[in-house]
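Page 37, top half.
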Amino acid sequence: MGRQEHVRVAVIGSGFGGLGAAVRLRREGITDFVVLERAGSVGGTWRDNSYPGCACDVPSHLYSFSFAPNPDWPRTFSGQRHIRAYLERVTDIFGLRPHLRLHHEVTMMRWDGDELRWEIETTRGTLTADVVVSATGPLSDPRIPEIPGLDSFPGKVFHSSRWDHDYDLCGKRVAVIGTGASAIQIVPAIQPEVAGLTLFQRTPPWVLPRMDREITGVERRLHRQLPFTGTVRRGLLWGMRELQVSAFTKRPNQLGIIESAAKRNMARSIKDPALRAGLTPSYRIGCKRILLSSDYYPALAQPNVDVVASGLAEVRGSTLVAAGGTSQAEGSGGGTQAEADVIIFGTGFHVTDMPIAERVVGADGRTLAEAWKGRMQALRGATVAGFPNWMTIIGPNTGLGNSSMILMIESQLNYMADYLRQLDVLGGRVALGARPSAVNAWNRKVQDRMKRTVWSTGGCTSWYLDENGRNTTIWPGTTGEFRRATREVDLMEYEVIRPPRKAAAARSVDGAEGAA
């Protein structure tokens, strides 16, 4: 019988978090690792989300690794295919291909307390690892609401992150469900080709103009020949966003100025007073994610578009029924109905209830989902009590409302690197387990700071909140603060775990018998 594969580190996922972890491991001199990816290529959310109009709402030069600058971004806000191509280049430049295990979806991870290692089951076999770095990301598993009658719909149904490129929308009656970041990009991209488009809007978003433009050849040559100019550009983009943080976290009333700009943006395209009223949010801007688009409102004003100011409540054959909503185009009350040939769900992802949590079994036999029941939390957004030598990238309260997640990912990679250094310094077979007291203290501090933020006081319900109304998603501070908090591991916050004596004795006996 062949020996089971064992690695020092197993990284789960190959998006920005997973590839960043892989690069950092190599830079730390660690080559005994694998990257387990359920799909057939790298890219994470930028591989999965290929819908028409898909693009990033963070400036390109800030939405890239500091250790892998890209002087050739074609636009100030890059599209999906350019970001995915960037991740493919990072994979090649840093020699990550040999570490990839594509089509290896993790089905279960169990902590072995005797051997102090993780047993990992995948769709292509099993392996063990000393440390697991979970970089599956919160925007991985699409959420489709349970709608009565949806199974009986005779047309096409798909989620924005599982776009069916073989299905031709031309001349079809299309229903888009949701008004989040994906929907406001999809609607203007498909509106010119469809016969009719009905947008089911449960809550209107705040939308600011998207200041996108082509980056000139002169700019790109300058960044290639003088790399520090790209660094300066990135620094300026970062600094501007750091200055905005206090308005979100301490003084939400200051955001009224931005609300006025959003209302002006709407008024330029939406002339119908009834439609404009239906598209105006009743909550403070920033409470939900602020969206960027310069063509969303013009698309909604077109004659083949109907906005329903309510969510989808029921499907009756090809008839879609709103939850007592009002069609802004018709101005009628009651349960609005619309006929559709295709339903596109732009309803987000399982963020506070990530499916991967069901597949991680810790030291006490509980799954991560059970440990997180009622309060998802992690020490410095990375480690969880009861799950030794397991850490997550983009964990609880590491999300951002106004800047680049790559900044947060790189901070967590610093923490991961020092975590592994501490294990080496401790020597031998050893694990680090986050102390419950440390996890609780960190979480109390985060939640105390959250009370003053726009996400708690802005008067909205968002995907930032869990089922108990707690914000377990967003970081209530600057990216600089988070980087300082994750610069190094404080061993006082951890329990140092050694193998049980009986297991150590058993290994000694086995070794002696083998020698005999």
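Page 37, bottom half:
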Amino acid sequence: MTSQVSSPAEQADGAVVGEQRKAAGAKDVRRLDRVIIRFAGDSGDGMQLTGDRFTSETASFGNDLSTLPNFPAEIRAPAGTLPGVSSFQLHFADHDILTPGDAPNVLVAMNPAALKANIGDLPRGAEVIVNTDEFTKRAMQKVGYETSPLEDGSLDGYHLHPVPLTTLTVEALKEFDLSRKEAERSKNMFALGLLSWMYHRPTEGTERFLKSKFAKKPDIAAANIAAFRAGWNFGETTEDFAVSYEVAPAATAFPPGVYRNISGNLALSYGLVAASRQADLPLYLGSYPITPASDILHELSKHKNFGVRTFQAEDEIAGIGAALGAAFGGSLAVTTTSGPGVALKSETIGLAVSLELPLLVVDIQRGGPSTGLPTKTEQADLLQAMYGRNGEAPVPVVAPRTPADCFDAALEAARIALTYRTPVFLLSDGYLANGSEPWRIPDVEELPDLRVQFAQGPNHTLDDGSEVFWPYKRDPQTLARPWAIPGTPGLEHRIGGIEKQDGTGNISYDPANHDFMVRTRQAKIDGIDVPDVEVDDPHGAKTLVLGWGSTYGPITAAVRRLRRAGESVAQAHLRHLNPFPRNLGSVLERYDKVVIPEMNLGQLAMLIRAKYLVDAHSYTQVNGMPFKAEQLAAALKEAIDG
């Protein structure tokens, strides 16, 4: 997904083509302001690739967009079963949008399982495109259909388009030297071509992608392109699709700049690379593969030209151990994981707290506990990030709000880690990691200066006048200790997990010293400079909706709905969860009611109640999926009226 949003000239050209097409063709072309499409099929049907390509072309066209990939945890789940259904939802519009959408306007179902798993989410009147070739008696019985839903009237409330996708694909590829099974694999490209025709999506980017992806297999590339074109031509010629649709570019939704479509994990990866360049430090990633964080390891491994070193360790503990060693050696050190990996890394995070070295711990949260729901989203690691270590081991916590915001959050986490010499948690989640949206590529001049000064020589004078290096002599403003590169003459010092004496860094078991060091480390975190939380409250509301992380999109969409309906409601969203912004207490005091939606059982609400003695109301969900805007709007309306 690397397409840029098209320029105004290119967008104008697209509009001209649309006008010419309407003038030349007999089919009706209707203009819409937004559309929600869901592709669904077996996990081996290529639905994620199909969605990715449609998304890239939509970004290229200039629409605002938001996506929601949803797939099984198994590499190849049982074919034709409900647990094996993979889907990709895309919401695109001619205006600013915030979520992948609540209910699809269009469902492309490649088999009976895909239809049954998704039909309940569709509103009446939605378009349903089904691959009739897969609706065999055995396939339908496998998912509990006693009669064919294509014939028994159960789909009468929808605009049903029965299309023999498999047969049409095989027929389109009969000139290629492919077996039927090989030809059938291109049916997702046929479906992509059909949907591209329906919504006037560009096609050149997809054809370039297929040529590149199958560069070593030109026959396969040609077959996929042929299937893609056949799908387009089918839409153009068949009588079943009498209408196509246009969604104009979102010309007013974006500030001026160069844009591209980007996923959360990719944005986070780029943010880490940018942080290392702005800090003038090599970037080191010590990681063990785990869903949904592995894409960061994959991406960073491609950027050796930027001084990035990636180490795929044998386990989670080795990954963070190597990263902490790299921090000691003067690198911008990162370890990536998800909730189960955080549990294994907890002792080394505590060691990093004791050593007071910069380290980024990136937690791409997923459903738990234990292995839980590896490919589903959740926000349930907040308390683990705050307190999941032995002893008093405070760690700053930063959370991005959207996929594109993962870039800025990575820079912010690096700023805190380098400035205050501390490990920092960066809490993303599966929804942000796999979802995507347009991102304005920043100019380098806009990025923060993260350069640090390593210790160069002695920093303390003893009573006898001799000059020595004290590794725990602190900056009076930040309370950060000096960062001394191993091997620097005269800067030899001890490190380790046993408590250090203030200043000298010698091993100390003195009770008073331990009390002082524990309180000093806490004071360092409490004193971190973070921006005040901003409140969106244009009407002087009495109810505040407070969120964090990936709930930003659904909350904002719900707040907009309520305001359009005449309700008065305020909104604030936290990026910094430890320490909280200094003005948060005064903000909370201004409102009669505070509602906190979370994809957990109320973890932020618990912290807010404890720290500010505010009777915060939790609204929670832990079903592995993000909130729907309509659902949140109803819950907030109830809170306002209650």
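Margin note: The chain has 21 helices and 24 strands.
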